[in-house]
Amino acid sequence: MNFLIQPITEKYLDEALQLHIDVFFNNEPLTPRLNISKNEFKKIIGKQLLSSIRNEYSIGAFNNNELIGFIICSDMNDSSKDQTLSLNFKNPFKKLHLAIEKLNIVLKQEPFINKKLFHIETIGVDKSYVGYGIGKELIKKALQIAQDNNFDYIYAECTNIFSENGMLNNRFEIAHQYAWKDCGIKEFENLAGNFSLTVKNISLKN
Q1: Strands (DSSP E) along the chain, which ranges?
Q2: Distance CA 163, CA 167 (A)
Q3: Mean pLDDT, the chain cut into blocks of 10 residues (206 residues total)
């Protein structure tokens, strides 16, 4: 199947948001545990998407001008970055943010201190197009952007074995992980498997 990998523009914001709803709100086992409505999800993720699109760090896979896959990234050293998943007590993503903070504690240690970090925030493919290598090409493009912009490391959090294997198959390594049952957050403790931080050293260029 032919598909084109290129930046997502604001023209495709609504399509990107709908695809996020399909991939994460409707099918991600973690999402129901956030106790978040679809409207809340759309508002928060829409804001995150718009910020990433404007920074030219949102990449899409297109088939006949239809958005069928995405990888949303950000520069974690950008002081102007919109902290969508803030610890604001009113934010329904607060508990997920706490889990992420616990996972990413290693990014505040060597060898990551004072390094440029490129973050893969979300990646997903329309279920009708899974199995065509779209995810692999999206990750390849994110790696290219990170290298072209002189980042030192690229990383992604993986909520399940499928996303973890996807990153490992692209030569990422597990920098830190813990079992969901040990996360210390009641709503997530009955999730299966591990929460993993996968990292790739850009300077190795492999």
Answers
A1: 4-7, 58-63, 66-75, 117-125, 153-158, 173-179, 194-201
A2: 6
A3: 94 96 92 91 90 91 97 83 46 85 96 95 95 96 95 96 95 97 94 97 73
